[in-house]
Amino acid sequence: MKNLLYSIAFAVIFLFACSKSFQQELPLIDAANFNTTIDGEPVALYTLDSGNGLIVQVTNYGGRIVSLWAPDKNGKSEDVVLGFDSMDKYIHNQGERFLGPAVGRYANRIAKAQFTLDDVTYQLPNNDKGNCLHGGLKGFDSRVWKVEAVTGNSIQLSLVSPDGEEGFPGTVTVQMSYALTSDNELKIEYAAITDKPTHINLTNHSQFNLKGAGNGDILGHILTVNAAAITPVDSLLIPTGELLPVVGTPFDFNTPTLIGERIGDDNPQLKVGSGYDHNWVINHSTENSVELAATLYEPESGRVLEVYTDQPGIQIYTGNFFNGKVNGKYDKPMIYRCAIALETQKYPDTPNHPEFPTTRVNPDERYTQTCIYKFSIKK
User: Known catalytic residues?
Assistant: First the structure.
């Protein structure tokens, strides 16, 4: 009997030790790599934990997501977003500005870098083939956000964009929060007010690879998009103003489809975008309600990413301009089509297209947006 008790005790200790050793030690980015001052403002790195396997690291420089760890079907976690492991690398790789930041004051493109509002024409920086892209030369991605509050699973940030910054009218005050839920949702909420009529269009520009950042391309990921149309673009990726039905085209992802299945088709829209770099018009059952817009699934790992939004559009970009010349985290090169961006927002160039859902915000109005990236596992 005594020997039996010893055997049971030994077995319990052994199993406990095995379970402890199985727990994965994540190589989280060292917060010391981000401790600096930019434009006289302190910059730091913050770690958020869902308590259920999802861990996100955020810096207040650009309000950007630096790393996002999610478990696979075997319980192994990988960092599934592109980025760098130090503040110095973000500063010295400005050709890759849009790895995980909050983008504004106007996400996406504005034609000829100008718009007219209440009979006044505003000139913006020409930073993309004569157009204005993602807020200009120094958009919200290049500003230091103020940290308002931090908990174990959330962070609240704020930013004041003065009247005339990057050519945009009105002083705009933005509040943004990242919060992790126990269901492994990353919930992003935005709110903004202005003291003059202006245009506001915000998004997050995280670029995902569900196999892990730097672990090959995303052509084997399976994508579903709840959309009946895209906003087709011209040779400079500016919307023509039309809505193009996706049925019968390589842009129809209403049923789960490999990203790589049709990306090389002989299609004029794919040619101008060098792949997918377009805005899909989301099917909403109720206007402004938070609904499922897209689902991304990676079969090898079993990771699933669902995107929920209250916005009318989602810009999907398949990493068509990465060339492997810049290394991201873990010293892995960012190769051609190594990630996909799923940017919830209003349509591109809306200030010049009154037929599109408006991005105009007046002083007596409040801009709001909710985006949820929900992670799960399919075995």
Answer: 205, 343
